[in-house]
Structures are given as structure tokens and as C-alpha cells.
Design brief:
The protein is of the alpha/beta class. The chain has helices spanning 49-57, 84-94, 112-123, 132-145, 151-154, 164-176, 194-211, 222-228, 246-251, 256-264, 327-331, and strands at residues 5-18, 21-34, 38-42, 65-74, 77-78, 95-98, 182-186, 214-218, 231-236, 239-245, 312-315, 318-320. The chain has a single domain (5-331), classed as P-loop containing nucleotide triphosphate hydrolases (Rossmann fold). Helices cover 33% and strands 24% of the residues. The relative contact order is 0.14. The structure holds adenosine-5'-triphosphate (ATP), iron/sulfur cluster (SF4) and magnesium ion.
């Protein structure tokens, strides 16, 4: 199982130096994706989902961000140690991200065609060089995949000639146009029409199933995760708190935070996901010691206020970071 890991994030720590101090945001994140797998990542706003994935692509703004520890292995090689040339290759051929706010991903001075064709070209690895015609064809197909009408004409347009929603779909097309091994989709198309959102989710699923692309899907909507993901990670305040196959997570949530999330499901309307849990994400300037969830946890014990729970296996593919399920707790 170790060997089929495409992405393996180990004990990742990221802080932000801001006026007034240091925000200790990612506090030892562990996260893996296997080849061809669709992994969901959920957690309430501000828990560090986007920060984790931006660290993977090395696009965090530095400063204010600083990686203070950990490894991000992509096919066994640490992204954090790569030269800019190696990194360029990984970004071109290996992975692409659909950003939560994708408008910045388009360059205003080039046509859509030029940018999309560049994305297709760089994603095709050395041995399968594409001709100009093939590149153009793939660009057109990608625009059709995201339900954009009249792709031939669109290729000649500049970003400013498109509406916000169309620009967002162009960004999604850029990410899915090549044969990448991993696509990270951060709330893809949330601001788009529901039927187009559906189409984009179906497209991601098809890429995973037909060409074995791995997909990380970040979303606030648990229903979407349930429908698409093979496995789900639940994140809270800069930590992964639970990981399980999707079915198992929904039928047997263990971490008190996950239990709270599931309890909130019937009320979900696409807004926040933590309506079922009183309180809010802690202040990252001064986060709680021990389990970061303890101020909100009804089951907190003395050990939770002093020690940090680590992931423990509760069954073959189900891990939880909570003293209710670990041996440390039995000893106290
Ligand atoms: N550029 C930045 N400068 C300072 N702090 C930042 C920056 N980006 C993120 N943070 C801090 O990291 C925390 C986590 O942010 P992040 O965007 O990763 O959360 P998220 O889980 O993606 O939330 P959402 O669901 O709202 O997208 C924020 O609450 C903020 O404190
Ligand atoms: S470790 Fe303690 S505080 Fe944290 S979730 Fe488990 S019981 Fe609650
Ligand atoms: Mg985010």
C-alpha cells in the first residue's frame, strides 16, 4: 500500500507571519492519495484546506507563509526540496489545481486559446509530443467538457471578454485539459449554476475512472463528497482528525468533530458545515494546547488539554486522531 501512494503529506507545519504575531495554521497534517483515487477533504471554513493544497503546489505566498516542518512526497520525491525546474515539471505534467478563486489563474494579456493550448502542451509528457492540430483539438474538447458554448470562437477571446462564470470554467478546462496524474479541485464551480457544477463533478469522476487521474475534492457540501469520493479526510483547525472510506465515515463517524458534522447534515444548505457544533475555529495566534478541538468537545478529558492526539488505526483503512480511541487514553 505504501508504494501506490501518489501523494504523501507527512507532518506538515505551515505558519503565517502577520502583524501581531505568527498564525500557527497547519499543525502536523498527514494526508495521502493513491493512484486513481478520489479523495474528499472536508472541514469548516478556515481549517486550512486551501493552505494544505497550496503548499502541495508550492504556491503559498511566502511571506507571509512559512513551511516549518514536514514533507510532501509526490511519487516519492519531496516537493519542498525540488528545484524550480523540477517543480515546473511536476506542475506541468504531474498535477493541476482548480482554485477556489480562479480568476487570478488567467493572464489578461493572452487569449484563452494561447493559455489553454499552453496548458495542454506542457501536460503532455516527452514521449507523446502532440502536433499543433492535436493540441488545438484537445483545447476545444476541454472547453466542451466544461459546457462552454462555441469553443472555437472562445479560443480567440481575451479573459476580459468573458463573464466571471465563464472565466472560472476556462480555468477548470485548463486543469483538466492534459493527462495529469492529480487534479486538486478546491470547491470547483461553487459560484456556478448547479447543473454546470454537476457536470464538472461528473467530469472529475470520469477522469478518475477512465484515465486513472487521482482527484482531491475540497468541498463544504458533504452530499457531494458522499457521491464522489472513495475516501474522505476530515480536517479541523490545521489537523486531520479522521480518515475513512466514504461509506464507513458516513455510517460510523468516530471523532467527536465528525459526529457533529454528520449531525449537521440534514440542515445543510451549502453554507457552513459546522452548524451542529457550538463555538468556532480557534485563534491561530494562540491555538489551544493538546487537542485543538478540546474547547468545543463535549467528551474532552484531562489528557486532551495537555497532549496532542495522533492518528491511530481503528480498522484497516480508518484512522482517527482522538484520545477516546488511542492507547494513551487507556493508560490515564
Ligand atoms: N495569505 C494569508 N495570510 C495570512 N493568513 C492566512 C493566509 N492564508 C491563510 N491564512 C490563515 O490560514 C487559515 C486557513 O485558511 P485556508 O484558506 O487554508 O482555509 P480553508 O479551510 O481553505 O477555508 P475555506 O473553507 O473558507 O476556503 C485562515 O483562517 C488564516 O488564518
Ligand atoms: S482528543 Fe479529547 S478533546 Fe479531542 S476530540 Fe477526542 S475527546 Fe475531544
Ligand atoms: Mg479554502
Amino acid at each position: 500500500m505504501e508504494n501506490d501512494r501518489l501523494l504523501d503529506i507527512r507532518d506538515l507545519h505551515v505558519v503565517f507571519d502577520v502583524f501581531g504575531g505568527t498564525l500557527k495554521v497547519l499543525d502536523g497534517v498527514d494526508f495521502t492519495v493513491r493512484s486513481g483515487e478520489k479523495v474528499g477533504l472536508v472541514g469548516e471554513t478556515g481549517c486550512g484546506k486551501t493552505t494544505t493544497m497550496k503548499a502541495v503546489l508550492r504556491v503559498l505566498p511566502m511571506p507571509p507563509a512559512r513551511v516549518t516542518g514536514g514533507e510532501i512526497l509526490f511519487k516519492g520525491r519531496d516537493i519542498l526540496q525540488m528545484t524550480s525546474r523540477e517543480l515546473g515539471q511536476v506542475r506541468g505534467e504531474g498535477m493541476a489545481m482548480i482554485f477556489q478563486d480562479p480568476t487570478a489563474a488567467l493572464n489578461p494579456v493572452f487569449t484563452i486559446g494561447k493559455q489553454l493550448e499552453a496548458a495542454v502542451k506542457y501536460s503532455a509528457s516527452g514521449d507523446k509530443r502532440l502536433s499543433g492540430k492535436e493540441i488545438r483539438q484537445r483545447a476545444v474538447e476541454a472547453l466542451k467538457e466544461v459546457a462552454l458554448p462555441d469553443p472555437e470562437r472562445l479560443l480567440k477571446n481575451y479573459p476580459f471578454q468573458l463573464s466571471g462564470g465563464m472565466r472560472q470554467r476556462v480555468c477548470i478546462a485548463m486543469a483538466v485539459a492534459g493527462d495529469r496524474e492529480l487534479i486538486i479541485a478546491d470547491e470547483p464551480g461553487t459560484s456556478l449554476d448547479v447543473s454546470i457544477q454537476d457536470q464538472i463533478l461528473r467530469l472529475l469522476r470520469r477522469l478518475a475512472e477512465e484515465i486513472n487521474t487521482s482527484v482531491i475534492l475540497i468541498t463544504h457540501t458533504l452530499g457531494v463528497v458522499r457521491e464522489i469520493a472513495d475516501r474522505v479526510y476530515v480536517m479541523y483547525a490545521g489537523n486531520m482528525v479522521e480518515m475513512a472510506p466514504t461509506k464507513e465515515l458516513f455510517s460510523r463517524p468516530l471523532h467527536p468533530y465528525t459526529v457533529g458534522l454528520m449531525a449537521a447534515v440534514p440542515k445543510l444548505t451549502g453554507g457552513g458545515i459546522a452548524d451542529g457544533i457550538p463555538g468556532r475555529i480557534p485563534d491561530y495566534l494562540n491555538p489551544p494546547v493538546g487537542c485543538r478541538f478540546h474547547p468545543r468537545c463535549e467528551r474532552a478529558m484531562p489528557v486532551c488539554r495537555t497532549d496532542k492526539p495522533r492518528f491511530v488505526k481503528v480498522s484497516e483503512d480508518h484512522e482517527v486522531a482522538c484520545f477516546l480511541y488511542s492507547q494513551e487514553e487507556e493508560g490515564t
